[in-house]
Design goal:
Radius of gyration: 18 Å
Number of strands: 10
Strand content: 25-35%
Largest sheet: 5 strands, mixed
Number of helices: 6
Number of domains: 2
Strand order of the largest sheet: 3-2-1-4-5
CATH superfamily of the largest domain: ATPase, nucleotide binding domain
Helix content: 25-40%
CATH topology of the largest domain: Nucleotidyltransferase, domain 5
Length: about 230
């Protein structure tokens, strides 16, 4: 059995949840990306107080490690590491694209083995953070930062039906003409993250606090107006 604090601040919508044995007990969310830093600690305190929980009783802290918003990833990782250090609890890090895929599998009906799954996070202009997974999370295409064009995913989509989803999928939908492409609206679901974190907890797949850091997939760039 495991009581886990799950933290996700990687995208536009942030959430925290307490989950036991992979099932969400309590959750709070925030839809304003610029406020993730102020939301996080206050939300943890609110859940602890309003549901008579004690942080010392958790068994681990799980956090989405990236890719995603640079600021959001830093906020989430720093908070998770700080809690783990203070409480002497293990840290679980989970790829954001994996959590998105788990959310799609929970949300979408039908035979999951029929499709490949391609989460896409907006990375500005025509660039996205993306990957391709099978229903069992076998990696078909490793997570990467990709600049989209008409030939993107040419090899994979010629042989498989692929479900594209996430904040970056609209860019691909605007230029994709292949009949094997299916587009869905899917966000990160707290129950999906809870299932993944519980699995990693039971497998004791923890991350060393000293070496844990966000997965950015590309260098931070500041655009200076010309």
């Amino acid at each position: 059995m495991g009581l886990i604090l799950n933290i996700d601040t990687a995208s536009e919508n942030a959430h925290i949840s307490f989950a036991e044995d992979g099932k969400v007990l309590h959750t709070l969310s925030n839809g304003y990306q610029k406020d993730h830093a102020s939301f996080l600690q206050a939300a943890i305190e609110q859940l602890v107080k309003s549901h008579d929980l004690k942080l010392k009783d958790i068994d681990a802290v799980a956090v989405t490690a990236g890719p995603g918003s640079y600021t959001g990833l830093r906020v989430g990782m720093a908070s998770a590491k700080g809690l783990c250090y203070a409480l002497k609890k293990p840290l679980i890090t989970i790829g954001t694209l994996q959590v998105m895929t788990a959310s799609a599998l929970q949300l979408l009906a039908g035979d999951p083995e029929t499709f490949l799954y391609c989460p896409m996070m907006d990375a500005r202009r025509m660039e996205v953070f993306t990957a391709i997974y099978k229903y069992d999370f076998t990696v078909i295409m490793q997570p990467c930062a990709m600049i989209l064009n008409e030939s993107s995913f040419e090899k994979e989509i010629s042989n498989h039906k692929i479900i594209f989803f996430g904040s970056g999928s609209a860019k691909w939908q605007s230029i994709c003409r292949h009949s094997n492409a299916v587009f869905k609206t899917v966000g990160i679901l707290p129950p999906a993250m809870s299932v993944l974190s519980d699995f990693l907890f039971l497998e004791k797949k923890f991350t060393d606090l000293a070496y844990s850091e966000p997965v950015y997939l590309k260098e931070f760039q500041t655009i200076v107006p010309g």
